[in-house]
Structure prediction request, 285 residues.
Amino acid sequence: MSGTIGYLGPQGTFSEEALIAWIGADQASRERAYPSIPACFAAVASGEVREALVPIENAIEGGVSQTLDQLIAHQGGIVIRGEVIHPIHHHLIGAPGSTLAGVTRVVSHPQATSQCGRWLGAELADVPVDPALSTADAVRGAVEAADGTAAVGNRRAAAIYGGVILAEDIMDAPDNRTRFAIIGTDEVGSTDPGVWTTSIICSIQKDRPGALLSILQEFALRAVNLTRLESRPARTGLGRYVFFIDAEGNRHRDLPLQAALTAIEDGGIAHVISLGCYPAATEAA
Prediction:
């Protein structure tokens, strides 16, 4: 298996920014960019890269659906080995010589434009907003087009592709952060001290009133703190969902967490799929 780390590219994405914050610019320059989140997962599953860094949750928009759906699709084969929390600063970027008044179209990754929805609605209300595979692709395309197209992206992308910043910090919330998951095929499996996170998927065995409450009660009874709960379609029929849960603790060493997971599984409440147990992130500077 390659020792290379994959990330959602190309150069200039927020994923690359987070990668640089995690391992440093020199090392990050030797890693491999992929055009989409599914491509990152495929590279890990095939052994083309050892790990990949992908966005999983944003402070404004919540869970990144593509990453969550890929975790469902690869359940049992790909797990989370760590996380990086990185501040996100969105800017509106255009080709040299362009102005904010001359913007006729905005393009970016849907997560990015959603995180700037209020600003775009107030400042560019009549300007169409189109999707791109990544913020960096959007910036590159806007600079190359030089036709009034502007992109939502970061300063690094503007510098790499020769764009100019037309408006700074246009995100709806100033304290905007994204959590990135480090995915791989093997769980960390450590019992080292420190703050850990255990991520699981719970699939309800049988639809019945109070099923989700029954899951949550097993954690509450044992004073296990949950830091995230999100549902996604199970893709097995209309109205069927799975639940993504992040719990504080290490399932390999913490007895209350172990007991809660055992009670949920053995009690027939839900099928529990481990998504990994890993050190909780410290926020990047």
Notes: The chain has ten helices and 15 strands. The CA atoms of residues 222 and 256 lie 6 Å apart.
